[in-house]
Design brief:
There is one protein chain. The protein is α/β, with parallel strands linked by helices. It is built from seven helices and five strands. The chain has helices spanning about 20-30, 50-60, 75-90, 105, 125-135, 145-165, 170-190, and strands spanning about 5-10, 35, 60-65, 95-100, 115-120. The chain has a five-stranded parallel beta sheet, sandwiched between helices. The longest helix has 22 residues, at about 145-165. The two termini are about 25 Å apart.
Length: about 200
């Protein structure tokens, strides 16, 4: 199986209340020259979501898991899958985000000893968390630079929701457009080289 070093799997809640943070995740991942991936882009050829999610995780070198919405059991489950991929088939690094300090220790006691990043439920906090865990060089963008990309991506998301007549950005078509459009915006902003 070929692992794509630049691919970052995103395990997040797909609800309208999380849209701004999701766009912040996309902006930060794209600003670092990486490719955001998630289950939204997976078509169902009849094999079921579990097999597709595992395969997707195996192709990504890194995964980011935001467990700030405790009532969603599929997100801790997907984190468990990432842990298994990391331990059994690797290489795979996973990072856990949460809204509040120490809350994760009470929710998932099996993860004690695994550090998590706290974003406080904010766009800027989310950007900072991603930059901290995926930091690679001194040339990485600053949080302010990524925030400007986030603002451009937010405008693109509004336009895409209007164009696709959707109330939410969490659809396969919109996700693909956000990633492609975000990469162009990042390149136009001097964050990436155009390919």
């Amino acid at each position: 199986m070929r692992v794509k070093k630049s691919s970052v799997f995103l395990n997040v809640p797909f609800d309208r209340g999380y849209e701004r943070q999701f766009l912040a995740l996309l902006a930060a991942v794209l600003a670092l020259g990486r490719r955001p991936r998630c289950v939204l882009e997976l078509a169902d050829p009849g094999e079921g979501r579990l097999a597709r999610t595992i395969r997707h995780l195996q192709h990504c070198r890194v995964s980011l898991h935001d467990l700030s919405r405790a009532g969603r059991f599929n997100m801790p489950f997907e984190l468990g899958l990432a842990c298994a991929v990391s331990r059994l088939s690797g290489p795979h690094d996973f990072f856990v985000f949460h809204k509040a300090e120490r809350r994760l220790d009470r929710q998932l006691t099996d993860l004690k000893g695994v550090d998590h990043s706290t974003h406080g439920g904010t766009v800027r906090g989310t950007i900072t968390c991603v930059l901290e865990v995926l930091h690679t060089t001194t040339a990485d963008p600053t949080p302010d630079t990524v925030y400007r990309l986030y603002q451009d991506l937010f405008q693109l998301a509004r336009e895409l929701k209007r164009r696709y007549r959707r109330r939410s950005i969490f659809s396969r078509a919109i996700f693909g457009q956000l990633v492609e459009g975000g990469a162009i915006l990042a390149a136009d902003g001097g964050l990436l080289e155009r390919s």
